[in-house]
Specification:
This protein is of the alpha+beta class. It has 5 domains: about 60 residues, Helix hairpin bin (Helix Hairpins); about 240 residues, 2-Layer Sandwich (D-amino Acid Aminotransferase, Chain A, domain 1); about 100 residues, OB fold (Dihydrolipoamide Acetyltransferase, E2P) (Beta Barrel), CATH 2.40.50; about 160 residues, DNA polymerase, domain 1 (Orthogonal Bundle), CATH 1.10.150.20; about 80 residues, BRCT domain (Rossmann fold). The strands form 6 sheets. A 5-stranded mixed sheet has the order 2-11-10-3-9. The longest helix is centred in the N-terminal third of the chain and has 23 residues. It catalyses: NAD(+) + (deoxyribonucleotide)n-3'-hydroxyl + 5'-phospho-(deoxyribonucleotide)m = (deoxyribonucleotide)n+m + AMP + beta-nicotinamide D-nucleotide.
Length: about 675
């Protein structure tokens, strides 16, 4: 029983963490399918062991929180609840039978469940007055009124005014609009959105309405939450009235009377989902009669008169045309299956990573094979299996050659890993990714140095390694003339950012060097121990292994890096350019005062940016996390601190200011 209780507690923590990533940060780490499996397991355990049930369980409450940084908090007039998920035909029939047992003549409405961000829209005397996100679903949401006004589907004046109307809708992105946003972000060298839902949610929470307008969000309305001045007997009647008022409502909804009809409608939506202009994440089954809805009521999390059916991941057959090899920043060679294009979850897919030789062997995938492909969590294409009975007679097993596909140099498989790497540090395929890593936020943090600029400078021959970055100022006029970084203002802005980065602490430089297995935390440990790049270069294996956060593989990687004459030449030119090689005096005196402590930063701090505060924490031996949990020791809160602050208060985590942090390290 103690093991059961422990599993339940761990599942609750894990689901709460992923709820925060999905609802509040718009940046999920796992697929919907993986999340659903966690929730199903927790729900099953709570049903089997009711003594461990809790009102605080994520199965009993809506997943999100209201975020102050997104706007003013607004109190909900009507709760914006979640829906109970079901995953099988049996569960659908069980729901319908339960309803019909109490209300034998009731009808059901089956609708597409578009994947977006839920909102409530309020109207006074026929005029739109306020738009609110779901937030925590019960108490508060975020005011997004001005952003709603930028959405072309929104209705601002009713054709038949009523004293008060509140409707619930979904803000989403059409697939083509989502792809256009990502294309623009990619051209600017910025991080791409993982899927349309994340893009829609992140965009609606923008503080600049013009960004919302540019990204072309869409909106449909699926429920009347509250109305005065008119009455409806059922849901379908209200949808038809909303249509007449100019609202865009869910297309092709079906009114059903039996479980068979409900299931047929669900299957029709599932069979057509690849043809929609947007992504869906299921089908919703609702009781049509509004009086019956009142009768069945709701729990604290879900209405008892509706469920959401979640489709299994869509899978399709296609044929492998080739297995293409690519080389990453660290020289790792990655195989990718290129196949005949197929439509999955509304987008065209023609490639999927095969990860490494072990995965190829496990699948036994060969060129010419017919394969089953799906999108994991409807996001990332993956090869599920090979249809062996359709294999061509001449198909042969595929082996990654021990030759780099980019430079032709030798490659080798690392001991105790599945990775095959190119051994040539001057391999051109590795250069772009190595430069991007060096200039990135976790390393030298050179603002505005996006992928498009990196590729242009490499293409024109100005940058052949990371040291060359600090010498491109010599070619300023040429770069402006060629328009590589834009006009004079943009070019000078980037050159200044490069110049400013010379003064960074040396842990950022160590991270940027791209030594295998040396991330930001290990870099800080090395800086605190050796104080300078020169001393680190001369360190022995025994000295390295004695450093906190350093293991056998990491120590060997450091020695290997400094043994390479190409790297020594790069370091020499970095030093000649004036890049800092020494720990600052205050850093040299650090003694791990925050060792073992985990911090979360939220809001705008008075005197420094988030990355600077992260640097201070790591400098003193502390760790930085992106989300609040019971393992968090301190939350550092600035102005407009949002959901992380609320979470800390709920969990009893100590909240401190920037000043209190510095008192702590003193």
């Amino acid at each position: 029983m103690s093991d059961i209780k422990k599993e339940i507690e761990e599942l609750r923590k894990l689901i709460e963490y992923h709820n925060d990533r999905y609802y509040n940060q718009d940046d999920p780490e796992i697929s919907d399918f993986e999340y659903d499996q966690l929730t199903l397991r927790l729900r099953k355990l709570e049903e089997e062991y009711p003594e461990y049930k809790s009102a605080d369980s994520p199965t009993q409450k809506v997943g999100g929180t209201a975020k102050r940084e997104a706007g003013v908090l607004v109190k909900h007039n009507v709760p914006m609840l979640s829906l109970q998920d079901v995953f099988s035909k049996e569960e659908v029939y069980s729901f319908v039978d339960r309803i019909l047992k109490d209300r034998k003549d009731t009808e059901f409405v089956v609708e597409r469940k578009i994947d977006g961000l839920s909102v409530s829209l309020r109207y006074q005397d026929g005029k739109f007055v306020q738009g609110i996100t779901r937030g925590d679903g019960i108490n508060y949401g975020e005011d997004v009124t001005e952003n709603i006004r930028m959405i072309k589907d929104a209705v601002f004046t009713l054709k038949d005014p009523v004293p008060y109307l509140e409707v619930r809708g979904e803000v989403y992105m059409k697939t083509e609009d989502f792809e256009a946003v990502n294309e623009k972000l990619e051209a600017e060298g910025k991080k791409l959105f993982a899927n349309p839902r994340n893009c829609a949610a992140g965009t609606l929470r923008q503080l600049d309405p013009q960004v919302v307008k540019e990204r072309k969000l869409s909106l449909f309305v699926f429920n009347v939450q509250d109305v005065r001045g008119i009455e409806f007997a059922n849901h379908s009647e209200s949808l038809e009235w909303l249509k007449k008022q100019g609202f865009k409502v869910i297309e092709d909804y079906k009114v059903c009377k039996t479980a068979d009809e409900v299931w047929e409608a669900i299957c029709q939506i599932g069979d057509s989902r690849g043809k929609f202009a947007y992504e869906i994440d299921g089908a919703v089954v609702k009781v049509n009669n509004l009086a019956d809805r009142e009768y069945f009521g709701a729990t604290s999390k879900v209405p008892r008169w509706a469920v959401a059916y979640k489709y299994p991941p869509e899978e399709k057959e296609t044929v492998v045309k080739e297995i293409r090899l690519s080389v990453g920043r660290t020289g790792r060679i990655t195989p990718t299956a290129i196949f005949d294009p197929i439509r999955l979850c509304g987008t065209t897919v023609e490639r999927a990573t095969l990860h490494n030789q072990d995965r190829i062997d496990e699948l036994d995938v060969r060129i010419g094979d017919t394969i089953i492909v799906r999108k994991a969590g409807e996001i990332i294409p993956e090869v599920v299996s090979v249809v062996k009975e359709k294999r061509p007679e001449n198909a042969v097993p595929f082996k990654i050659p021990m030759i780099c596909p980019s430079c032709g140099g030798p490659a080798s498989r690392e001991e105790n890993t599945a990775d095959i790497r190119c051994n040539n540090l001057n391999c051109p395929a590795q250069l772009t990714q190595r430069i991007l890593h060096f200039v990135g936020r976790n390393a030298m943090d050179i603002k505005g140095f996006g992928e498009a600029y990196v590729e242009a400078l490499i293409r024109e021959g100005y940058v052949k390694d990371i040291a060359d970055i600090y010498y491109i100022y010599k070619y300023r006029d040429e770069m402006i003339e060629k328009g590589l970084i834009g006009k004079e203002k943009n070019t000078d802005k980037l050159l200044k950012a490069i110049e400013d980065s010379k003064n960074n602490s040396i842990d950022r430089l160590i991270t940027g060097l791209g030594i295998r297995n040396i991330g930001p935390q290990a870099a800080i440990s090395l800086m605190n121990h050796f104080k300078s790049i020169h001393k680190l270069k001369e360190a022995t294996y025994d000295e390295l292994i004695a450093v906190k956060d350093m293991g056998d593989i990491s120590a060997k990687a450091v020695i290997e890096f400094f043994a390479n004459p190409v790297n020594i030449d790069i370091l020499s030119r970095l030093e000649q350019a004036g890049v800092n090689f020494e720990a600052a005096d205050d850093m040299a005196d650090t003694d791990g005062k925050l060792s073992g402590l985990t911090f979360v930063i939220t809001g705008t701090l008075p005197s420094m940016g988030r990355s600077q505060m992260e640097e201070q924490i790591r400098k003193h031996g502390g760790k930085v996390s992106g989300s609040v949990s019971k393992k968090t020791d301190y939350v550092i809160a600035g102005e407009n601190a949002g959901s992380k602050l609320t979470k800390a208060q709920e969990l009893g985590v100590k909240v401190i200011t920037e000043d209190e942090f510095f008192k702590l390290v003193e």
